[in-house]
Amino acid sequence: MSSVHAHASFDSPAVPASGLDDRHLAWAVLLAHLVLWTLVPWLVSRNLPLDVVEALAWGREWQWGYYKHPPLSGWVAELARFGPTNLSLFALSQLMVTLGLLATWLLGRDLLGTRLATLALMATEGIHYFNLSSTEFNANVVMFPFWAWATLCAWRAIRTGHVAWWIGLGLCSGLGTLGKYVFLLLPGSVFLYTLLNLQARQAWRSAGPWAAVLVFALIVAPHVQWALQHDWATLQYAIGRGHSDELAQQGSWGLEFMNFVLAQTLTLLPAWGLLRTLGPAQTVARPAHERWLLAAMGLGPLLLIMLAASLAQAKMLHMWASPFFICAAPLYLAWRRPDASRLHVRRFTWAWVLWTLLPLSLFVSMALLGPQKKHRLDRTSYPGVEIAQALTRQWHAQTGQTLAIVAGEEFVAGTVAHYSADRPSVFYDADFRESLWLTPRRVEQKGALFVWPIGRGDVAPADLPLDSQAQVAPLLARYPQLQVKPTLLVQTTWMGKPYTVAVAWAVLPPSPTGHALVH
Question: What element of type H or E holds 141?
Fold first, then answer.
């Protein structure tokens, strides 16, 4: 039996004569993005952002899942942790974006030819998810390459029927789902298309789709097993982020829904504006089954998440939609395309250069001048190295042992864990539900350094508490041997302005005999 090949109707436009130059330009754009958006954030940051610190804390544990997300972002962050600086971790985020943009360009070549594909690639810089909002590696960013490559594989699988592309779709979908569950909306949209479209439905008579399902299942099976063993902790967290009951009670769901729609519209507006500078566009005549496939890949995930949120009256966070639009520009041009013989390339180029410089300038100004305006240090200007070194020295001096566990607020605890030479585990908020890799017995035996942020330069030194008594008191019933310690003060400067950073801390001494903890 044959699948839906439809070779004639899926033929790509002819590559223009300037294809070689356009290919060089595309590679230059990809390289420029990778270099600029790696170096600029790295140069204006002395501390890692929260999401990167969090991913590193997860990744060092090598679990098949974590209470917030599936495991991929943690694993990848841990693999990228090398060298004496944070450069590799800033590069990681942009590597994810660049790999995704490469697949976007290849999809554009299939749909549009090389020149328009390159222009669509450039227009994607108009979407802040892939520049300004991508500097912090997290579970959203790790989906970008897999989303774009899954889209390309789906297009080519249905176009050619080759089993290799179906396997690629299953592989990318499985890995993307290990990044974040929202990724399921893309293969879900393609699956619905193959069921509802008469021509595409014939693909199920071949081995390709079944191979995709098998590869996908093999990849996600260990995580599903982990989720079953941990009461679907990740799914419960995702549901909790929606605050369905709270929104329904307050009657604010409709406003949240409109806010989400407006945010995504404004996000796409600059890219659409850049494409408009190329000249008037006309609707492209395509076979119906092809139009529906492009719609399924381009709009399907967005419509599905909006439908699910409508039924559950749940809140949708703006960044949940971030991977949806990595292929938006070529998919839009596949629907409405300017005349290739009358492109206003110079006008587009000037608009693109100006828009590309805008988010870079905005990021630098926020990173360098934001703390002065807010009178408090941002997380990326936080003196994490100094704090981690000071607290690790204190732990060694008082216990004579390696620091194995840091407990407390996610950013400070994660920062200490990352910059400490001992690479301790993180005990988030001293809550075992958030730190599924830890057990009460291990905390008993290894002890823990507890930390709480109490000032990032926004509290006068005279108003800071002298010690951690207030933070320790609620924990004494669980940890009667938890020792109050004097507040740690770190004097630092940012852009010439002095700041006093304060951290409350306490020590739970290691207790191999198991008497440190009251059960």
Answer: none
Q: Which amino acid is at 408?
A: G
Helix (H) / strand (E) containing 500? strand 497-508
Please tell me the distance from the alpha carbon of residue 170 to that of residue 193, in angstroms, as a whole number. 16
Whether residues 201 and 105 share a domain: the answer is yes
Q: Which amino acid is at 12?
A: S
Residues 387 and 429 in one domain: yes
> What is the CB neighbour count within 10 angstroms for residue 439?
11
Confidence grade of residue 252 (pLDDT, cut at 50, 70, 90): confident
Q: Using one digit for the tens of pLDDT, what is the confidence trace for 185-237?
A: 999 999 999 999 999 999 999 999 999 999 999 999 999 999 999 999 998 88
Same domain, 64 and 160: yes
Contacts of residue 265, Cβ cutoff 8 Å, sequence gap at least 6: none
Name the percent of the chain in helix, strand, coil, to the closest 5. Answer: 65, 10, 25
Q: Does 297 lie in the same domain as 394?
A: no
61 part of a folded domain = yes
Both structure tokens of 79? 């693999």
Q: 0.85 cut: is pTM over it?
A: yes
Which residues are paired to 425 by β-bridges? 405
The DSSP code for 259 is: H
Interval 106-160: pLDDT, tens: 999 999 999 999 999 999 999 999 999 999 999 999 999 999 999 999 999 999 9
Tally of structural domains, the chain: 2
Q: Smallest Cα–Cα separation from 64: which of 251, 228, 189?
A: 228
| Residue 409, domain extent | 382-508
